[in-house]
Amino acid sequence: xxxxxxxxxxxxxxxxxxxxxxxxxxxxxxxxxxxxxxxxxxxxxxxxxxxxxxxxxxxxxxxxxxxxxxxxxxxxxxxxxxxxxxxxxxxxxxxxxxxxxxxxxxxxxxxxxxxxxxxxxxxxxxxxxxxxxxxxxxxxxxxxxxxxxx
Length: 150
Description:
3 domains; 66% helix
């Protein structure tokens, strides 16, 4: 499973692709130094501060703990509106089959393996692994479908 990006890596990419001056214009001139701090690898700097992405993660986690994950999901849905539809395509496009029919057959196999793991009362790690595999398989089917629609 690919490693999740850390927030400093996201800030580093935003700064490199959009430019520091753009981020300063959006977040305010007084935040120039702070933007540079956000994008530094914490392993190599002592002067690191919590960035807005980390803060939102904490807020969303707290909302979920208080039984209001729906509010966090609405906030995330709002943020998603900044992206064009094509950017919301699944990322699991590696190892796609040649046809949709082959992909769908692979979906059935992955879901059947999940069902069998549950029926055999396998340990939680195995069931979680089978679940991820089934979801990735279905995402590949959707990705191939979307690729063929273009």
